[in-house]
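Slack export, channel: ligand-projects

TW: morning all. Re-posting the request from yesterday since it got buried. We need the structure predicted with the small molecule present, not the apo form. The ligand is magnesium ion; the SMILES is in the block with the sequence. No rush, but it would help planning for next week.
GE: picking it up
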Amino acid sequence: MPDAAGSKPVEVFGVASGKGGVGKTTVSTNLSVALCQMGWQVLLLDADLGLANAQLALGVRAEFNLSHVTAGQKRLAEIMVPVRPGLQLIPGASGVRSMAALSVDQTEALIHTFEQIETAPDCLVVDVAAGISPGVLSFMGACTRRMVVVKDDPSSIADAYGIIKVMHQDQGLQEIYLVCNQVQSEAHGQQLHQRLADVCRRFIGLELPYLGSIEADELVLDAHRKYQPVVEFAPGSAAARDYRRLAHAITEWPAPQGVAVRRFFMNRRARGFTAAAGTAQR
Ligand SMILES: Nc1ncnc2c1ncn2[C@@H]1O[C@H](COP(=O)(O)OP(=O)(O)OP(=O)(O)O)[C@@H](O)[C@H]1O
Ligand SMILES: [Mg+2]
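GE: finished. pasting the full token output, ligand included:
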């Protein structure tokens, strides 16, 4: 809920998947750009700490990254890279083994450093590594909402259920949404969601809301080869339409609830963005 001053907590969404390579980074980067095109101030955290690649997907080069922050050599604000007006990236570290195996304490220390950022964004998008490592679960626990990306193949579905179960049953997390990637049609995505939602309801008593689907689209790969997000490379493509739809659904969400126990921007407020007006209140 917006507070008396009209501002609200910073939206923080984690983008996870059980299985690797199902489209987390593509969703995170395109969603960030689409939200930014809608007027939001967006910060994208590449929290895939061992094999970061959001930089490549956005076509930016960063001299410093999170490994310099955890080593105490740089402050978070010093490694933030402007990507577009309204979009900044916190680059992950690629090929740094010590980063791939950050402990829960180290991950939480990193999350705490977000309090240092001078101007809080409207939202933070957190692109995590695949799987259910302790670091991934700490990041997801520190978000206001979580999206699980799934593809219609048996291992992706089984692993999506696995991470949803761990987050909900073991970690007590709520606000978990499903994004169906590389589907043939919206109806196909809805069917995939229905299958997973039925299993979640039956076995772990969780309602798994559907956030949206992204069609399988060759132009996503063409865009990737050009180091561009498809929402900019081919705005008229089916995938770009779907990412914008996803962004639109997010702007319709009510303000996050229960953020007092969360840790990213725990004590900070967003500008109080109102989607209907398309403007910030302060
Ligand atoms: N909707 C789509 N249509 C076609 N190709 C896609 C789509 N979404 C993602 N891809 C492609 O799938 C591949 C994997 O995507 P991506 O890197 O986003 O996955 P990931 O889940 O972040 O992987 P990792 O687990 O390694 O971090 C990329 O080559 C990407 O271009
Ligand atoms: Mg990735």
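GE: first-pass observations. The two ends are 16 Å apart (CA to CA). Confidence is low (pLDDT under 50) at residues 1-5, 273-282.
TW: perfect, thank you
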